[in-house]
Design brief:
two-stranded antiparallel ribbon; alpha+beta; 3-stranded antiparallel beta sheet; 4 helices; 5 strands
């Protein structure tokens, strides 16, 4: 008998997973939650599920990352 395996990807990520996903640091995300912006950059949307639990939805993080222009070389940044 073959059983079907279902892989479930969680919709929400805890701050440590969100930091790894974005390449930002845990502390940067924490400061963005507290102050709204860090170094002039507005942080991704988050949900406070309880006093101790904060979740970031993958689609919100992807939207946050999409706001930055992509570069092929450092020279492109100056142009």
């Amino acid at each position: 008998m073959i059983k079907e395996v279902v892989v479930c990807q969680p919709r929400g990520m805890r701050p440590d997973a969100a930091a790894a996903y974005t390449g930002m640091t845990y502390d940067w995300l924490k400061r963005a939650r507290i102050y709204g912006t860090v170094d002039g950059i507005k942080g991704p949307k988050f949900r406070r599920v309880s006093d101790r639990i904060v979740l970031y939805y993958r689609e919100d993080i992807d939207e946050f990352l999409d706001q930055f222009k992509s570069l092929q070389t450092v020279h492109d940044e100056v142009a």
